[in-house]
Amino acid sequence: MRILFLGDVVGRPGRRAVAALLPALIREHDPALVVANGENAAGGLGMDFKTARQLFDAGVQVLTSGNHVWKIKDFYPTLDTEPRILRPANYPPGAPGRGMGVYAAGGVEVAVINLMGRTFMDDIDCPFRTVDALLDRLDARDTPVPVRLVDIHAEATSEKIALAYHLAGRVSAVLGTHTHVQTNDARILPGGTAALTDAGMCGVRDSALGMDPRAIIERFITGLPKRFTVASGEELVSGVWVDVDPETGRALDVGLVS
């Protein structure tokens, strides 16, 4: 079975790119499950019900997120009521929503786990210990769920890679998000776990992380706060596909979408 995972969707251009390009990717790859990180889908920062629905209508089946999912407070109730939308599991108890879901995908159940790193990020619970506890819950189920996908939303490449090795042989894939720059290190680790440091983004190609570079340049030069705006221009979809043995959960092959 093949799983298709798309990097951070940034604003209206990202949503438009997914709507335009995902149908062809689905025809090409015939994925059993399509997952995307949607935390920047609304105006380049946050997610709301309307933008989530647009991504579902385009063919995405599960949305993961990260630190920006809290930007729009009106969206919090949706995190509690919509099981197809995840927030990082290692936020402390009491945070809205859920960090893991089990989804039907072509007759196979797939567990999707959303985590967030702590290096240069918010000081939240440990993603390593959190995912260990979640895997214990999966292992305790009466019905096994060997196919397991992890989105690690983190800034530091070292933290993402360390988590991938920590989970090697226990999950099908550990795929990074948040930096919006697709990395060229897709590989299968010992034990059959596919790993990629960052899946990239869905948004404007000639941009700074999907945003207009001019405001970001001014902020770097002056050190002063500056309002960022979503860039305009040629749009792209970046991500990764992973082939998984549905019986064992081991990754068989992995490749980039760009």
Automatic annotation (TrEMBL):
Binding-site list for Fe cation 2: E39, N67, H153, H178
Record key words, sorted: Metal-binding
Active-site residues, Swiss-Prot/TrEMBL: H68
Positions contributing to Fe cation 1 binding: D8, E39, N40, H180
Annotated GO MF terms: 2',3'-cyclic-nucleotide 3'-phosphodiesterase activity; metal ion binding
Listed CDD domains: MPP_DR1281 (cd07382)
Gene3D superfamilies reported for this sequence: 3.60.21.10
Protein name, entry field: Metallophosphoesterase
Annotated organism of origin: Oceanidesulfovibrio marinus
